[in-house]
Amino acid sequence: MSTSKYIETKLIHGGIDGDKVTGAVNVPIYQTSTYKQAGLGENTGWEYSRTGNPTRAALEALIADLEGGVAGFAFGSGMAAISTVLSLFKQGDRIIISSNVYGGTFRVLDKVFKNLGITYSIEDTTDLATLDTKVTPDVKAFFIESPANPLLTVTDLAGVAAIAKKHGILTIVDNTFMTPYLQRPLELGADIVVHSATKYLGGHSDVVAGLAVTNNKEIAEKLAFNQNAVGAVLGPFDSFLLIRGIKTLGVRLDRHTENAERIARYLEQHEAVKRVYYPGLPTAQGYEINKKQAKNGGAMISFELYENYDIKKFFKALKLISLAESLGGVESLVCHPATMTHASIPKEIREKVGITDGLIRLSVGIEKVDDIIVDLVAAINAAAAPSDSAKGT
Predict the structure, then answer these.
(1) Are 51 and 73 in contact (CB under 8 A)?
(2) Catalytic residue list contains 102
(3) Could you tell me the CA-to-CA distances from 305 to 273, 336, 356, 383 in Å, in that order?
(4) How many degrees, rounded to 5, is the angle at CA 213 between CA 277 and CA 30?
(5) Given Cys at both, which of 142, 260, 278, 382 links 317, Cβ 3.0 to 4.6 Å?
(6) How far is it, in rounded angstroms, from Cα 131 to Cα 150?
(7) 300: nearest Cα among 124, 174, 158
C-alpha cells in the first residue's frame, strides 16, 4: 500500500503497485481461471479465480487503501456488492434505509431479501433525533446514501454512525456519488462502504463493477466467505480497467465538480428552473454538514423545471448531453429518475419523498462547461410552451 498520506498519490500508487516479478508499472491482467499446484496442499496462494485472482486482489487492496479499510472486495456490479453485503443478515433482521436511495437498492430489498425474511423500513436519516427512536431490537443496520440518489439529500454520517454504535448495529454507506476522493465514510464511523464502481471510479462508461470495503476484520472474514460462496466476482480484465480508471479519479473529479458548481449556480438563477438540488450550493439542504464530511458538493445535480415546460421536449432537444442510465462517466448524462433509475419504487413512495415526475438528474461530465450550459439552455428553450413567459408563471 502507498505510504503517502495524500489520496492523489494513493490513487496511482495505492494497493498493490505494479508487478515485482517483471517490473511492469501496471498490474498484469491474470486472465486465468485456475492455477497449477505443486502437490496436494501445495499452492502459490492462488487456487481458483472465483476465490482469488491477482488482478482482482490488486483492485481490492487499492479500494481498501483509498477508503481506509482492512479489506476490499470486488464484484460484477454495484448491485452484486450490495446484495453480498445484505447477505450478512438473516431472517427476522430489519434494515433502515434513507428515504431516497437508488431504485436498485430498494428493489433488491423489496423483491428479493424481503422474501428471505429480511425486511426494511424507510426513514428520514437526516433527522437524527427521530432516527434514534426508530431503532427497535430487530433493526440490525442503517443503509445510507449521502448525498442520496436522486435528491442529493445529505445525511450526517458521523451522527448516524454514533447512533448505530449506541445500539450495537452496523452503518453501511453507499459512497458511489462521492467516491473516496471526496468523502471517506469509514473515517466518519461507518462499518461498510459500497460503491457502484461502474460510475466515477471507472469513469469512462466502459465497465460494470461493484466494490465493498470494511474496517472490521470479523466483517471482512464474513464478506470474503460470502463473496466466494455467492461468486458474483469481478473478472480480471474489468479489474484492470477499474484500476486504470481510478488512477485518474482525482483529476477527473476536480473537473467534474468545477463544472457542476458553475452549472448549479447557473440553473439556480434560471427563470425556467423551479428548484435545484445540489449540496454544494449554500442554499441546499445539508450544505454545512456536507462541507464537514465531504471535500465539495460532487458532480451530480437534480433539478425541476416549472410545470409549463415539457420535459419530454427537453430530453429530446439535448444534443451534447446523452439521455442514458448511469452516471459518473467523462461524458455528461441526464436521466428521468421516475421512469428510469427509480421506476422500481412505487409512485406513492416516490412522490412522498420528492421524486416527482418532473425531476431531472444530471451527471455533469468533463466537457467544456460552456458547451454543457449551451446545450441545457437550448433544451430548456425547446421545452417552453410557445405562449408562456420564460419565468414559468
Answers:
(1) no
(2) yes
(3) 4, 12, 11, 9
(4) 115
(5) 382
(6) 21
(7) 174
Active-site residue, from 10, 56, 184, 199: 199
As beta bridge partners, residue 240 has none
72 with 213: CB under 8 angstroms? yes
Catalytic (active site) residue 255: no
- Angle, CA of 97, 101 and 104, to the nearest 5°: 105
Q: What is the mean pLDDT of residues 55-64?
A: 98
Options 30, 102, 278, 306, the catalytic residue: 102
pLDDT for position 216: 98
3-state secondary structure of 322: strand
Set 174, 191, 238, 375: catalytic member: 174
Given pLDDT bands bounded at 50, 70 and 90, which one contains residue 389? very low
- Measured CA to CA, the distance from residue 151 to residue 276 in angstroms comes to 9
Residue 63's identity, in one-letter code, is: I
Question: C-alpha angle with apex 285: 66 to 256, nearest 5 degrees?
Answer: 45
- Judge contact between 152 and 300, C-beta under 8 A: yes
CA pair distance 362, 391, nearest whole angstrom: 21
Please give the Cα distance from 93 to 81 (Å, whole number): 19
pTM of the model: 0.94
Residue partners of 366: CB distance under 8 A and separation at least 6: 252, 255, 256, 259, 330
Q: Which of 19, 35, 50, 291 is catalytic?
A: 50
Tens of pLDDT, residues 217-266: 999 999 999 999 999 999 999 999 999 999 999 999 999 999 999 999 99
Question: Is residue 336's pLDDT more than 50?
Answer: yes
Active site residue 50: yes
Is residue 217 annotated as part of the catalytic site, yes or no?
no
Q: Please, where are the H alpha helices in 294-341?
A: 311-317
- Please report how many Cα atoms fall inside a 13 Å half-sphere around the Cα of residue 128, on the Cβ side: 14
Contact 179, 200 (CB under 8 A): yes
